[in-house]
Amino acid sequence: MSTQRAGGWASGGALLALPSLAFVLVVAGLPLALLLSFAVSDVGMSRGAIVSWSLTTEHFIAAVGDPLYHAAFARSFTLAASVTVLCLLFGFPIAYLHLRSPGWLRTVILVATIAPLLTSAIVRTYAWIVILGRQRGLLNQALLGLGLIDEPLRLINTHWAVLIGMTQIHLPIMVLPLIAVMSRQDPRLEDAALNLGASRLRTLRDVTLPLAVPGIGAGASLVFALSYTTFVVPQLLGGGNYLNAATMIYEQMIFALDWSKGAVTAAIMLATCLATVFAITMATRRAMRWSDQARA
Amino acid sequence: MKRGARTSIGDRIGVGLVLALGVLGLAVLVVPSLIVLAVSFDTRAFVSFPPQGFTLRWYAALADNAQLVRAIVNSLWSGLVVMVLCILLGVPAALASGRGRFRWRGAVPVIVLLPHAVPGVVLGVAVLFAGSAVGLRPSLALQSFAVTAFILAVLVRTVLARLERLDPALEEAAANLGAGRARAFRDITLPLLLPAILAGAAFTFIEGFDNISIAIFTHGMRNPPLPVELLGIVQTETTPLVAAISGVQILLSTLLVAIVAATIGLRHVSD
Question: I need a surface site. Which of A99, A153, A197, B86 has the fewest CB within 10 A?
Answer without folding.
Answer: A197
